[in-house]
User: Fold this.
Amino acid sequence: MNSRLAVRKIGAAFTVGALLTACASAEGSPESVPTLAVSQAEEPGTAQQSSAAKPAGSPEPANVAGPAASYVDAERPTSLILPSGSVMRVRPVSTSPESELDIPTNTNQAGWWDGSSQLGEPYGSTVMAGHVDSFEHGLGKFAQLLDAQPGDIFTVETTALSQRFEVTRAELVPKSSLSADSDLYDVQGDRRLVLITCGGAYDAERGGYRDNMIVIAEPLSELVER
Assistant:
């Protein structure tokens, strides 16, 4: 599994430049990945022949370690299936110099923060954000997050993998609370999906919504190869 270092937390673009505490994380060392010893099969009677042919004092050949059957290569999300069945394209996004998340302007697309966990990683938050609406594109698919309830199912897909997540928490929070809640962006904790969009009252003077809608979902199923 490739090692990645997340050097900073994020504030979503609609969080008005909120800075989060920096945090380093690693996806895991080789020691943490289960391995299975694999050795070459021998024909009956060959063990004595090979033993006799070896020079005195020769070391025994080492077993070759390989990944466990449950190991998969982690991949970035490419699509998100909402409880309604609507499918959103997901593309990777980074943070700006102001520590804002550069989410897609198209309200029918979501941005996966490239500092968060990928599908197939054993721990950490997979963070996606999207605009609830815009003057150009109108109401977006992430507006459905405003009606999310515990028990709703979201499905995350990659090029080769798919996994279902069940909502455990859905609530409006002030944007200041979002920037302070570092647990949302934890890439070392329990495996979960974190979805973020705007919500609450619209503040025309500030040109944006006052709150954020946060939906948190936990894995409901194992990874499935597509």
Observations:
- Residues 73-225 form a domain with the Sortase; Chain: A; fold (CATH 2.40.260.10).
- Residues 1-54 have pLDDT under 50 and may be disordered.
- The helical segments are 46-53, 175-180.
- The longest helix spans residues 46-53.
